[in-house]
Amino acid sequence: MNFKASAAAFVVAAAFAGSAEAQSLQPAISSAWDDMQLSQDECFARGRTTFERLRFSRIERVGNSVFADRGNFQFAFRCVADKRMYYVYGGGPGDQDKQLDEFISNLKAEFSRR
After folding, report:
1. Are 111 and 32 in contact (CB under 8 A)?
2. Is the distance from CB of 73 to CB of 64 less than 8 angstroms?
């Protein structure tokens, strides 16, 4: 009987340890939006230029967004010219949400810089 109780306790402890590890691996996400007076193509160009100025890598346009990477983070500018707005969003390691929020703030400020 003691062996069964010990085995059950081990399984429960392992499950809790596994769930704590899984929680730490969850991604962080952040986003912001702002108004703009750009055409769709001008928005794409500004998104690309913003990523280039801030030295992001793997910059590419897919659909209505311009994507880029920075270390373990991925970001995008989504252009919605007919609504006169853009949306910047990104994701990365769950334990680095403060740095992710700073990236989003910097990207928004740089994009809006005239």
Report:
1. no
2. no
